[in-house]
Design goal:
Layout lengths: L2 H45 L11 E5 L3 E6 L7 E5 L5 E8 L4 E8 L5 E5 L5 H11 L6 H9 L8 E5 L16
Antiparallel strand pairs: 1-2, 2-3, 4-5, 4-7, 5-6
Length: 179
């Protein structure tokens, strides 16, 4: 090997090592910092009452003492779906595996099994999850179910967090037990 070839090899190795250092620095420090700053900004905006932006969210949750609504912020028609609190019979928290990350979800079901799925990527998710015990008596607070659903990672960990029991209707007694 000549000196020129050795110098070229050393330059290529140095450039490769420098590229790896930059790549890992970007992955390890810059991306988490950028994500944390974005979350802090979104939390400040929510606390100040700034409406969610389609740039940051695809869907937004709105709620009041009557019920909740999920609005599509990016759709052309800005469609919304919602439910009244009185319609909700069951709430199930679970996790979706999105390959590299997990997404915590909540399915709010009617008595017939239909319902609406919400997730932590929606605007005002945290506010809704904290307020649900107020609107659904018997709903487990987030502190009781979040760790069960979140860990271990990449498992569904389905957990029932609310169940409204149906009122018992008196049944007439027939046959041998009748009067």
């Amino acid at each position: 090997m000549t000196i020129e070839q050795a110098l070229i090899l050393a330059a290529v190795c140095s450039a490769s090592i420098g590229g790896l250092v930059l790549f890992f620095s970007y992955q390890r420090w810059y991306l988490p910092l950028r994500s944390r700053l974005k979350v802090e900004r979104l939390n400040r905006e929510q606390a100040a009452g700034v409406p969610p932006s389609p740039r940051d969210y695809h869907y937004a949750i709105s709620f009041d003492p009557e019920g909740f609504t999920v609005s599509d912020l990016r759709g052309r028609k800005h469609e919304s779906v919602g439910m009244h609190w009185s319609e909700i019979w069951r709430a199930t928290a679970f996790k979706r595996d999105l390959f590299t990350v997990d997404c915590i979800c909540l399915f709010l079901a009617r008595a017939d099994g239909t319902g609406i799925e919400l997730n932590e990527e929606m605007a005002r998710w945290n506010s809704l999850v904290e307020a649900l015990p107020k609107y659904l008596p018997g709903y487990k607070p987030r502190s009781e179910w979040f760790s069960i659903v979140a860990f271990p990672p990449f498992a569904t960990n389905e957990t029932q967090v609310y169940d409204r029991t149906e009122p018992k209707i008196a049944q007439p007694i027939t046959g041998a037990n009748a009067g």
